[in-house]
Amino acid sequence: MKIFKAPTLNGIDGDAVLREARSLISKKLDEPSRRVFLRRSLTLGGLSLLTGCSISDNAQVEAALTKISRLNDKVQGLIFSPTQLAPTYTEAEITRPFPFNAYYGEDEVREVDEASYKLEVTGMVADRHSWTLAELRAMPQQDQITRHICVEGWSAIGKWGGVRFADFLRHIGADLTAKYVGFKCADDYYTSIDMPTALHPQTLLTLTYDGQPLPPKYGFPMKLRMPTKLGYKNPKHIKAMFVTNTYSGGYWEDQGYNWFGGS
């Protein structure tokens, strides 16, 4: 079965076209959550990338969905504002308890030794020394109460504190014209973000939660908190970061999730 491409959008119910395309794809593909995510992000523009694909051929549709995801990345990057702030909330609005979220169960949370911990910094930076927690805590700190939005459909409000990431990048002499900042984590997670998001004023190297040292279940010793991104873009237990012009993907992104991941 082929996905029909209308010769023109004039007089065509775009929403109906998308609903039918999404329905056809979902019936023909095995869909873990990442495929649901991509299918739901299908737009009329992206639909044209499926033209000629046999929806009974998983490889063809997978390739087309990847193209759609990359197109979405570019569009989100173009419309992202480095000065537009995500909403903030009061302490009374904090979700208690704040939910645990990871690709593994809470009983498998990684324990990182505080005394021996050092943040490795590499790539396009002037200062590549490894940072202790004491050094990071000595930098100016700020708090934010913002909403974490999960791709699975739930959200929660939490209070995060730490070093503004833009200040840290400038302090280490990072090349702010580079395209990406990547992260490697103690729980084997990894991801990368665009430089404009890295420099956003609400992007934090988080060291505390609700005024206390960051608990292991929330990412001790360090989590990158970005209220402008979906939850899976916020890495926990960070042990290394690098500034680069080379696309390095991410744990979920390499399995089909949208890379930009804007909320």
TrEMBL record:
What CDD domains does this protein's entry cite? bact_SO_family_Moco (cd02108)
Q: Where is the Oxidoreductase molybdopterin-binding domain?
A: 109-252
Entry's InterPro entries? OxRdtase_Mopterin-bd_dom, OxRdtase_Mopterin-bd_sf
Membrane-crossing segments per the record: none
A Pfam match is Oxidored_molyb
Question: Which PANTHER family does the entry mention?
Answer: BLL0505 PROTEIN, PROTEIN-METHIONINE-SULFOXIDE REDUCTASE
Q: Which SUPFAM superfamilies match?
A: Oxidoreductase molybdopterin-binding domain
Organism's domain of life? Bacteria
Query: What name does this protein carry?
Result: Molybdopterin-binding protein
List the Gene3D superfamilies: Oxidoreductase, molybdopterin-binding domain
| Organism lineage | Bacteria, Pseudomonadati, Pseudomonadota, Betaproteobacteria, Burkholderiales
